[in-house]
Amino acid sequence: MEVNPNDSETESLQNSPLCLQPGNLSRQNADIEDSPSVLAAEDSPSADVVASPAETAGLLSLPLEALSHIASYLPAHTVIHELPKVSPLLKVLFEDTTAWQLRAQRLCAHQTCIPVLLKKMMDWPSFCLEMEQLVDTWGEKPLNSVGVMQSVHKEEQEAGQRENPEGAENGAGLPEGDLEANVRRCHLEDLEVPNNALLGENEQTMPHQVSKGSPETPALEHFVLPSYHIAQVNSILFLGGEGAICATASRDWNVKLWDLNRGPNGALLYSLASEGETDSHRGWVSCLASKGSLLASGSFDCSVKLWDLQAGGTHTCLIKNEAPIFSLFSQSNVLLAGTFDKKVNMYDLRAAAPLIKTFTHHKKAVTCMVADDNHIISGSIDRTVVIYDRRAEKILKRIVLKHYPMRMSYDDCVVWAGDCKGFLHAFYMNADQWEKETQLNVGHTSVITGIHCSQTSLYTCSSDCTFKVHIPSASPVTLCTWKYTSPVSAVCAEAGVIAVATGDVSVKIWRPRK
């Protein structure tokens, strides 16, 4: 299916910074300086290959454009690994950047483009291969452009019907009193989690989503970790890069380490605890972060603890704070902590006195943050997202949202944020300026409690009892929705392995079948 530049839907998308302009999808208008060049037959390495008489007959005698069109119907794996074995002349199909861009757009049903199109010198074949694997793994049927467009229009109509009570989205009306009451109010009542969700009752299935009742899929195996936690799991973090080891942080004050490859349902390695203590913390454990062999846990007991996993989970450092820790993010040798008292604290994990700087860019609690070498992006209950330039030591941009952000995830290109009303937001660098895509409705009806993104995948979960898998486009395409009988509180992904925590004190695991 080809993109029609005169189509009204295509024209409306051309103005989006996240969309690849139709002119960029033609060989005549390809930007040689800013993106990988589209190799014509006479310019490609394959043009130097002397074809045998047999190769110049039959299918291989067709023009490059015809061969490229035929190859577009083949799986990416076949074009990358198999066609070059048939004939060296077919290597040009692997090098045709425009064909891979069109394939990526087709996977999104032509209704939108991929944010990472902004990234220069992309590995387009690998990008399309990973995206097709995501669709094959989670999609029940091939994406239909008409159906997706109808669902997008429906989401836009539904988005206009959801309104907040005045002042609820910015954390107004927090009760005065002890700290624990404030924290609980902030995380429960201000999030406006429906009472039926807290009680484990399910809400209606979104009509435009693929709803799955069974956890089994042909490409994935599914199991549930043994129930050693006695309260809701707030955070999940994979360690080691292979999707084999994960840590869970719970409201039962504990952090536990799991080996997913041990036994049929994984096995508990150990629970983390300081010497002389039975629990990891003395309050809810809200967040996790890691760097190398060090695991950091943040808690409502106003502390951050560091654990050395190479030494069997030995407690190595206690960092005290004046308020509960809501979010953690590790970057290089720096650990960032977002706190209830409006601060972002920066710690050097190598120093005896780890606190380096404290930023107070927000007026209310800092709920989420991500960072890279140049920026710190933080979100707060004051409904703002602040982008801070670490080198210039100044605020680059302050973005005001309609509803305050709860979770963030960053793939080195786009920051995805989920807010307290179930909407997604995308922030990205465009021409050295940070831009924001308008709020996106992916079907969640309550607080987004977890989000994990990569270049080719986007996973979200919510207190509306759903977990969703999306293609991370300018208007995310939802591949499937899993419904549960209790709120979903956390999600994490690594090496194709997905972990989801639900309110029934369990952690569900999906991983590729062996």
Query: Oligomeric state of the chains?
Result: single chain
Strand order, main sheet: write it out. Answer: 1-26-25-24-23
**Residue share in helices?**
10-25%
**What value does the Rg take, in angstroms?**
24 Å
Average pLDDT over all residues: 77
Class based on secondary structure composition and strand pairing: alpha+beta
Please report the number of helical segments.
Answer: 9
Largest sheet: 5 strands, mixed
Global outline: globular
Distance between the termini: 34 Å
Task: List the uncertain runs.
Answer: 1-49, 141-180, 183-214
How many strands? Answer: 29
Write structural notes for this entry.
The structure is a single chain. Residues 1-49, 141-180 and 183-214 have low confidence and may be disordered. The radius of gyration is 24 Å and the shape is globular. It has a domain at 8-134. The longest helix is centred in the N-terminal third of the chain and has 15 residues, at 124-138. The protein is built from nine helices and 29 strands. The chain has 514 residues and is α+β, with helices and mostly antiparallel strands. Helix 5 packs parallel to helix 6. Residues 1-29 have a biased composition (Polar residues). Residues 1-35, 153-176 are annotated as: Disordered. This is F-box domain-containing protein. Residues 153-165 have a biased composition (Basic and acidic residues).
